Amino acid sequence: MPPWLLGWVRRGPGPWPVLPWLVILLIAPVSHAVGDGSVTELAAVAGVAVAFVGLVLPLGTDQVLRRPVALALVAAQMLLVGTGAVVWGDDWYAVFVLVAISAAVGLRTSVAPLMIIVIGTLSSLTIGFDTGAWSTGTVISVNCLLAGTATYFFYWLLAAVGELSRTQAQLAEAAVTQERLRFSRDLHDVLGHTLSVIVVKSEAVRRIARRDPDAAAAHAGDIEQIGRSALADVRETVGGYRRTTLAEEIVTARVALSAAGIRPEVGPVPDRLDTDVDLTLGWVVREATTNVVRHSGARTCRVGVTERDGRIRLVVEDDGRGGSPATGHGLQGLQERVEQMAGTLEIDASPPGFRLVVELPVERQRADA
């Protein structure tokens, strides 16, 4: 769909598709009134035109006619057209179709189809009883039904397409927002841990550089390797291909904890974990041990993984100072990851120490499944 047409549909077509019918269907009664010089007939035509415009013009604005007002305008039109058909003859018959069109557009509710049927029926009865020409009344009635129904469904279809288009645009915006959140969370998880390890090793280099140059050089080599690894991780994260496993993150956690002077105590890791479960638990170990290195002041950090009754449980705890359980960006990102996997995350920051517990179903089970 061309952009200009798509924008027109999203905003709504307004009254313009039906306004030409006002001119077309009033040509005959206007000509008759002018030919007879009848001011009364011209006034009746003007009344029909005003009622029609009053019904369809709000389509171009944010205003909506209340149902009693709209029904009153349709009734006024029907009364004027019925009077015109009886008093001034067949030049007014086609104007019944105009009333049906205005009802289809102006009511814009479930009552509109019913009113179209009523208008078609009344037009046939009026013409039939007035002239006895029931065939003519039937033709006008059918025209009312066809024109009114077509107009009603035309506007209904455009409204549905516009709503779908707006929903599609909102979904696209939501997808972009979600991707931004995912990227910021992944970037924090990747760089937060890596930079913490670099800071710890840099402090170690500064402390031992004079008394043990060989050890300082070894730490400097580790910093170089970690920096290269971080660069690769960032590239993978930007590309959306970052994959980390529980086993890999536990190895990295051992290095980071040991470099910070914290003794790691790590239990066995279950084999053949579901890919998403393995990935999520890896992120948990990364973020939790990063917080231990940064904030705990602990001497020991324990990481344990157990599996029971179809659920896997990961516990990371230290013997440090504890603190507030308030979550930062990292822990908030973990909470989101765990919830996406239909899991639970518990934090106990009561001194001594800090304890984080995550439980996930062993099999992949998305929260929105």
Helix content: 55-70%
Strand order of the largest sheet: 1-2-3-5-4
Low-pLDDT regions: 365-369
The tally of strands reads: 5
Order of helices and strands: HHHHHHHHHEHEEHEE
When the domains are counted, the total is 2
Radius of gyration: 38 Å
β-strand percent reads: 5-15%
Count of discrete alpha- or pi-helical segments spanning 4 or more residues: 11
The multimeric state of the shown protein is: single chain
Rounded to the nearest angstrom, the distance between the terminal CA atoms is: 34 Å
Outline type:
rod-shaped
User: Mind describing the biggest β-sheet?
Assistant: 5 strands, mixed
Structural class: alpha+beta
Let me know the average pLDDT: 82
InterPro entries: HATPase_C_sf, HATPase_dom, Sensor_HK_TwoCompSys, Sig_transdc_His_kin_sub3_dim/P
Pfam family, one: HATPase_c
GO molecular function: phosphorelay sensor kinase activity; protein dimerization activity
Domain Histidine kinase/HSP90-like ATPase: 280-363
Main attributes of the structure:
single chain, 369 residues, alpha+beta, Heat Shock Protein 90, 2 domains, disordered C terminus
